[in-house]
Design brief:
It is a single chain. The chain has 443 residues and is α/β, with parallel strands linked by helices. Helix content is 46%, strand content 12%. A five-stranded parallel sheet has the order 6-5-7-10-11, sandwiched between helices. Strands 1-2 form a two-stranded antiparallel ribbon. Helix 4 packs across helix 16, helix 5 packs parallel to helix 12 and helix 9 crosses helix 10. The longest helix has 30 residues.
Length: 443
């Protein structure tokens, strides 16, 4: 009994010593302070974002996302999207209910109407100019006076989407165009990138479909549907991000700021890196360009868009040309089968139509070429062999630019480069209408 009391006493003393040494567990004051500060930051960020959102809306700031995921072509214009486009030029853009950068059109063709469907990339999409200034709108107005239509009304429908190659344009023809019952299908080709866009090796993206030759037949390769990036773009998280960007000017501003910072950092790295290769000079500055040393080994310096002026020097470029020419023929055959008329129009690249001839000569010397219209002429020859009507715009546009001393490409500080400006669209629309009326549709 005595031993038991002694043991209990020792235990009591031990427990007392333990509790004296061990304070009661309480939430650390430091953690509470950190959580409080974090909450204040989040509240401040929220209210700051609300104020910024209101301010951006009041000043008309808008950088919406005009594109959406598409199971057939990888991406497409988003029906109903609208907002300002200011990356090049400035225009308020509205995408119609069928996903066209165009006004609304009924699927049923009105009586006494000739419909022309335009397929192409960023040139017919024409985000840099207003819809009324776009070449296909100018063309529509001029064609109303064309005698080849015997007084019928002309309606032009624009199916152009930035970045599309001939493969995506053929899929657009099959999936979207025919429901509008066009009488004429026009393929507007941009030579500086359309050929490369038809090659996975040159385009360097797995997020779009391609056509490839298998057993000497053009076959659709739509393996992009299983790519990790495409699957992610269809996820709920990605969809929520797109919704937030669509509805928040503040989020749009953050995204644009991030893009601008990436461009600036890339520019700084290019300047600071001793091994950095120089960027291709803009056409207006080509007078100081030097003789190239090796066409293929210096492809990074020349830029893939400029390689189109050279004779294909490897299997990748030969295959890109073969696929492109095959797709044009395939498109022509499908249009002819439907009882419509098919015409190819090759557009222009900035350097081809710079008003100053010395600039073009310096560019030709740098690349070691003698014909700045070589890609246009190759497409023309391929079309002629297949009996396909073709309109080659670049030589005519060059004459117009020289005679009027006018830049047809570019805006502001980037004049001479990039897409057509309003003057370029106007002249192109007038020329296409004239050629269609006098040389193509009258036959």
């Amino acid at each position: 009994m005595v031993e038991r009391r002694i043991a209990l006493g020792v235990l009591t003393l031990s427990n007392q010593s333990f509790f004296e040494r061990t304070p009661m567990i309480q939430p650390p004051r430091r953690s509470r302070r950190i959580l409080g500060k974090l909450l204040l930051v989040l509240i401040g960020f929220f209210f700051g974002g609300v104020v910024a959102e209101i301010a951006l809306r009041l000043v008309g700031y808008s950088y919406p996302e005009f594109y959406t995921v598409d199971q057939l072509r990888g991406y497409a214009l988003r029906p109903g999207a609208e907002g300002w486009y200011r990356k090049e030029g400035e225009a308020y853009i509205r995408i119609n209910s069928d996903g066209l950068r165009d006004r609304e059109h009924s699927t049923t063709k009105p009586p006494n109407t000739i419909r022309i469907a335009v397929l192409g990339d960023s040139y017919p999409e024409a985000l840099s100019v207003s819809q009324e200034e776009a070449f296909w709108s100018v063309m529509e107005g001029r064609l109303q006076e064309c005698g080849a239509f015997a007084g019928k009304r002309v309606e032009v429908l624009n199916f152009g989407v930035s970045g599309y190659g001939t493969a995506q344009e053929l899929l657009t023809l099959r999936d979207d165009v025919w429901k509008y019952s066009p009488d004429v299908v026009m393929l507007a080709m941009t030579t500086n990138n359309d050929i490369a866009d038809n090659s996975r090796a040159l385009k360097k993206t797995d997020e779009i479909p391609y056509f490839v030759y298998r057993d000497n037949q053009l076959t659709l390769d739509d393996s992009f549907k299983t790519s990790r990036s495409f699957v992610w773009r269809q996820s709920a998280i990605s969809g929520a991000g797109r919704w937030l960007r669509d509805h928040s000017r503040f989020v749009q501003a953050i995204i644009q700021g991030h893009h601008a910072l990436k461009i600036r950092l890339a520019s700084w790295r290019a300047v600071e890196s001793p091994n950095a290769k120089p960027e291709p000079s803009p056409p207006v500055a080509q007078e100081q360009a030097t003789q190239r040393q090796d066409q293929l080994s210096s492809s990074d310096e020349l830029g893939i868009d400029n390689l189109i002026y050279l004779e294909p020097g490897n299997a990748e470029w030969n295959n890109a040309w073969r696929v492109t020419e095959g797709l044009i023929t395939l498109m022509h055959d499908e249009v002819k089968t439907r009882g419509a008329q098919f015409v190819v129009v090759t557009l222009s690249n900035g350097i081809q139509v710079v008003p100053n001839p010395h600039v073009r000569e310096a560019f030709e010397k740098r690349l070691g070429i003698t014909d700045i219209f070589s890609p246009d002429n190759r497409i023309k020859s391929a079309c002629t062999r297949e009996g396909i009507p073709v309109i080659t715009l670049a030589p005519e546009l060059q004459k117009s630019a020289v005679s009027s001393n006018t830049f047809l490409h570019g805006f502001g500080e980037n004049i001479g480069n990039g897409h057509w400006n309003p003057a370029g669209h106007r002249k192109a629309g007038e020329l296409i209408a004239k050629k269609l009326c006098e040389d193509v549709l009258s036959k």
